[in-house]
Amino acid sequence: QLAQTVVFVDDPISSLDSNHVHQVSVLLLRHLNEAKQLFISTHSSELFNAIKEEWASRGTFKSSNAGYLMHRASETKSELIALPAHLAKFRSDYHHVFHCLAKLGQSQNADIDLYIGTPNLVRRFLEMYLGARLPEALGIQKKMHILFDDADVSDSVYLFANEGSHSQTNLRLLQMSDFPAQSREVVSRLFRALHAKDSAHFNALLRETGTTWPI
C-alpha cells in the first residue's frame, strides 16, 4: 500500500521541456501525496518552484514538509544540508539570481572560487530582464542598449558575462588575481544601470529579495 511506502523520485523531468514541468508536478503531488514519505530530487529550478508552491507557505516549508540542498563540500565529498532560507523564500529564479548578485557584489571575501559563478549569474539576469523588456529573437548583446548608454561599459559587462559563463574559461578566471574585484565591479555597473534606467523595478527587487544596495 502507498501509505506504507517510501517513494523517492529522482529528477522526473529530465529531457522534458518546460511546458510539461507543471503537469509533472501536479501528477506527482496528486498521486503520491498519500505515501508514507515522499522524496523528490531535481536540478530544475522550475520543478523546484512548482513543488515548493505546494509544500511551502509565505517563504517557509510547512511543518509536514522540508527542503534540502546537496552541497558539494569538496572534490570528493558532498553532503545534504538544510535548504538555505533564501531558496525557500523566492518564487522565481529571477529573484534568486538578483539576490545572489547583490550578495556577491557586496562581499569582501577574496576567495576567487566564490566568484566563479558570477559571469553566469550576470548573463542569466541580463537574459531574463532584457528578454522581458524586448521580447524579440535577438541575442543579449543587441539588447544591451536598453540598460547602458556607454558602449565601453556595455561591452565590458557583456564580455564578462559571455566569456566567463563558459566552462572552458574557468581555469583562466582562476588565474586572474583580480577576479573578485572585477566581479564586484561588473555587478555594480549592472545595478547602477538598472537603477538609472528602471529604478522602480530595481527597488522592487531589493524589497522582494530583502537585500540592500548602496547607490
Give the SSE layout.
Blueprint: E1 6-10, H1 21-32, E2 37-41, H2 45-55, E3 56-57, E4 60-61, E5 68-72, E6 78-82, H3 85-89, H4 93-106, H5 118-133, H6 151-164, H7 170-174, H8 179-197, H9 199-209
Parallel strand pairs: 1-2
Antiparallel strand pairs: 3-4, 5-6
Helix pairs in contact: 1-2, 4-5, 4-8, 4-9, 5-6, 6-8, 8-9
Gross geometry = globular
Describe the biggest sheet?
2 strands, parallel
What average pLDDT do the residues reach? Answer: 87
Gyration radius, rounded: 20 Å
Strand percentage lies at 5-15%
Distance between the termini: 59 Å
The number of strands is 6
Number of helices: 9
What this model shows, in words?
- By secondary structure, the chain is mostly helical.
- Helix content is 50%, strand content 11%.
- The chain is built from 9 helices and 6 strands; from the N terminus they run E-H-E-H-E-E-E-E-H-H-H-H-H-H-H.
- The protein has helices at 21-32, 45-55, 85-89, 93-106, 118-133, 151-164, 170-174, 179-197, 199-209, and strands at 6-10, 37-41, 56-57, 60-61, 68-72, 78-82.
- The strands form 3 sheets. A two-stranded parallel sheet has the order 1-2.
- Helix 4 (93-106) crosses helix 5, helix 5 packs across helix 6 and helix 8 (179-197) crosses helix 9.
- It is globular.
- The termini are far apart.
- The relative contact order is 0.10.
- The model has no long low-confidence stretch (mean pLDDT 87).
